[in-house]
Amino acid sequence: MYGEFDLSIPETLQEAVAALSSSGKRAVPLSGGTNVLLDIRSQKLAPDLLVGLGSVAGLRGISVGDGRMTLGGQTTISDLLASAEIADKAPALLQAARVFAGQMVRNAATVAGNIACGSPAADLVPPLLSLDAEVDLTGKDGTRRVALADFYTGYKTDQRKPDELITAVSWPEPAAGTFGSFYKLARRHGDAITVNGVAVSITLQDGRCTRARIALGSVGPVPMRARKAEALLEGQALTQDKIAAAASAAAAECSPIDDVRATGAYRRQMVGVLVARLVNMAIQPKDQEN
Ligand SMILES: Cc1cc2nc3c(=O)[nH]c(=O)nc-3n(C[C@H](O)[C@H](O)[C@H](O)COP(=O)(O)OP(=O)(O)OC[C@H]3O[C@@H](n4cnc5c(N)ncnc54)[C@H](O)[C@@H]3O)c2cc1C
């Protein structure tokens, strides 16, 4: 059952940060609540104060400008699904949103909550890693920007200070000729925890790969980039030999564990299969994509 806690509903970012910094209180940000409320009910979390962010102005929305795409932290999964910009310029994120939970959770669950929950299986994180996303952290001393690839410091730990909020996540608009995709391996489409999540972003110019990003979820303590695999593709014409080598490298550099959903050995094998499959999609003629 729920213990006792106070609830603050700030209307400005300044008020939200001030509430989080309340001295002597264990203050916890609350976005959609699809993780927080479950954690309180199961007594994993016992806050003194919940700081609800749903009424804070200016934290929700998708924008494109100055060569960057930006998601406000309070943007929901349903917002991603409804966005023409996401469909056009970040298809891997759209694919992650399509297999995320069920409709009720999608309406509440936010981008900031997904990043901050720190789960290795958080479905938005591999696509965001593949886009070179950066996270804006706002606290009483202002806003700092950190690369999502450096944000997590270990299993469910990260660089966020207790008085900071994730206010936005942004990334450079992908270059022309960039293919992006995400695949969630799970028991069902939606409402199932990811066994393996793989996102790729591949830029091809004049028949060569000029930029490769391969990001993996649920195969280590934190979502990760497969940097050795990426290095095997960059600068290369993507032949089947090169793709197979990158797929093997990705499988070798992750560190999956056995759990109730799958064995580590199966997960590692499927990383190789899925990386090869998604990179191959990048080299298909356009009308065969997806
Ligand atoms: C039935 C069900 C199905 C689900 N399916 C999926 C799924 O398919 N894929 C998936 O990835 N997840 C899934 N989840 C998990 C959850 O819905 C997501 O992780 C979601 O994105 C969390 O967002 P939220 O806004 O609800 O976060 P909350 O529950 O509000 O918060 C989550 C964590 O983030 C912190 N936090 C929230 N906002 C901020 C902020 N702005 N700055 C700093 N910290 C913040 C909170 O303090 C808390 O620690 C599912 C959950 C349920 C209950």
Largest sheet: 5 strands, antiparallel
Topology, number of strands:
14
Percent of residues in helices comes to: 25-40%
List the total number of helices.
12
CATH class of the largest domain: Alpha Beta
How would you sum up this structure, described in words?
With about 290 residues, the protein is of the alpha+beta class. The protein has helices at about 15-20, 35-40, 75-80, 85-90, 90-100, 105-110, 110-115, 125-130, 150, 225-235, 240-255, 265-280, and strands at about 5-10, 25-30, 50, 60-65, 70, 135-140, 140-145, 150-155, 155-160, 165-170, 180-185, 195-205, 210-215, 225. The protein is built from 12 helices and 14 strands. About 45% of the residues are buried. It has 3 domains: about 5-50, Uridine Diphospho-n-acetylenolpyruvylglucosamine Reductase, domain 2 (2-Layer Sandwich), CATH 3.30.43; about 60-170, Uridine Diphospho-n-acetylenolpyruvylglucosamine Reductase, domain 3 (2-Layer Sandwich), CATH 3.30.465.10; about 180-285, CO dehydrogenase flavoprotein, C-terminal domain (Enolase-like, domain 1, 2-Layer Sandwich), CATH 3.30.390. The strands form 4 sheets. The chain has a 5-stranded antiparallel β-sheet. A 4-stranded antiparallel β-sheet has the order 11-12-13-14. A 3-stranded parallel β-sheet has the order 1-3-2, covered by helices on one side. The model has no long low-confidence stretch (mean pLDDT about 95). The structure holds flavin-adenine dinucleotide. Flavin-adenine dinucleotide binds near residues 53, 100 and 165.
